[in-house]
Design goal:
This protein has helices at 17-20, 65-73, 86-91, 102-105, 172-175, and strands at residues 24-25, 27-32, 38-43, 46-51, 54-61, 75-79, 110-112, 119-121, 126-136, 148-160, 165-166, 169-170, 178-180, 186-188. The protein is mostly beta strands and 201 residues long.
């Protein structure tokens, strides 16, 4: 099949776009508002951008609480979503009014960042503490800004639970990351395998 991306001529019950671009890591973003209130929300439009310096990005469809708080305070945390925290992550995705504390809503322990004034999930297997470097609005071919806010942050601190370090590595099999697929589908990382890059010459 083929359809124009600016139409809904695919004839399917739901748009398949996000199912095609999958799996996607989940950026579980911890922030604090200018009023001091805590916020926690999962974003599947999330990824690393570069490693020198270490920069990550999450994109908010609409001006949601995480983007607002990151803009107001200049900091955020990224909390690792492991299989044992999947239900809590989902609970924190509820569309609640500004000021509702999703840490409490999801039954999680909020801890304070070492290098940033933002809360993180104490139960998370890993946490990235980040300082905002840019917030931009993507622009389409028509030159108009999308209703999306891309928040870029440089990682200034990394916290790792010792239980997922084995043989000198962050062991993904032990950490059991959860990824977002299309629609309402999620997946836990399946059997792992190593694949070395080919040597040329």
């Amino acid at each position: 099949m083929f359809y124009r991306a600016d139409t809904r001529d695919h004839g399917l019950p739901h748009d398949p776009f996000k199912a095609i671009v999958a799996p996607r890591p989940i950026g579980w973003i911890g922030t604090r508002g200018a009023d001091g209130g805590r916020n926690l929300g999962p974003y599947s439009f999330f990824n690393t951008v570069c490693d020198t310096p270490k920069i990550v990005m999450f994109s908010s469809s609409g001006y949601k609480h995480s983007a607002r708080n990151a803009l107001e305070t200049g900091v955020f945390t990224v909390n690792y979503v492991s299989a044992d925290l999947m239900a809590a992550m989902n609970a924190s995705s509820a569309a609640v009014p500004y000021g509702v504390d999703e840490f409490d809503l999801a039954g999680l322990t909020a801890a304070e960042g070492e290098m940033v004034d933002a809360p993180y999930v104490a139960e998370a297997k890993a946490v990235l503490e980040c300082r905002v470097t840019q917030i931009i609005r993507p622009v389409g071919l028509d030159g108009r800004e999308a209703d999306a806010h891309m928040v870029f942050g440089q990682v200034v601190g990394i916290r790792i639970d010792d239980s997922v370090i084995q043989n000198g590595r962050f062991d993904v099999a032990l950490a059991r990351p959860v990824t977002r697929l299309g629609y309402m589908d999620y997946a836990e990382a399946g059997p792992l395998f190593e694949l070395a890059r080919p040597k040329v010459g």
